[in-house]
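Dear colleagues,

As part of the handover before I leave the project, I'm documenting each prediction I ran so the next person doesn't have to rerun anything. This entry is a single chain, and its sequence is reproduced below.
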Amino acid sequence: MKEVFTVPLNGLAPGRTRFHASAGKTFFAQFENAEVLDADVKVSWEVEKTARELLVDGDLEGTLTVVCDRCLEDLVLPVVSSFALRIVFGAGEAAEEEDADGRETVYADPSLPGFDLSQTVYDYACLALPVQRVHPDGECNPDAVKHLHSESIEQKPEEGSSPFAALGELMKKKGVEE
C-alpha cells in the first residue's frame, strides 16, 4: 500500500490539524534508493492553516536497514529527525528559501488539491543516517572481519613485488644513490 504524505491545500479547517503515515521499504523504493534495504519509519506532521500560508511541523522516527560499510551485512539504524516548512500560496520564487525562524519556504499552487511531502520525508530520513554505517564493535560478521584482518594483508610485501622495487633496481644500475 502506498502511503500518502500530503498536506491538503483546500478544505483544511483553520487552526492545527495532525496527520500520520508510515514510510516502509516500498516508499524508499519509489525513489530508487539502493542504499535503503528496508524501512520502518513513522511520520507525523502538524499543519497550522492561516489565511495566506500553511506552517508544517513534522517528525520522523524509526529504523532504516542499510549495508554495513565494514562487513557488508544488513545493519538496522535508528533515525530521528524533524522538519519545518512554510507553504505559501501562489507563485513565488522557484527556489526554496529558509526563513529566520528556520523554516524552509516553498510555494504551492492553490488550485492543486494538496502539497506532497514525500520528497521532504525521504530527504530528512536519509539525512538522519550517519556518514559511516558500521555495526558496533564486535557485532560485524566474523567471517567478513577475518578477511579484513587476515595475516596476508598484514605481512610485509615480498621484495620485488612492489612496483617501486623495479624502479630501485633500475636506479642502482644507473648509479643513482637512494
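Helices lie at 25-29, 118-127, 142-148, 151-154, 163-174. Residues 163-174 form the longest helix (12 residues).

All the best with the project,
I.
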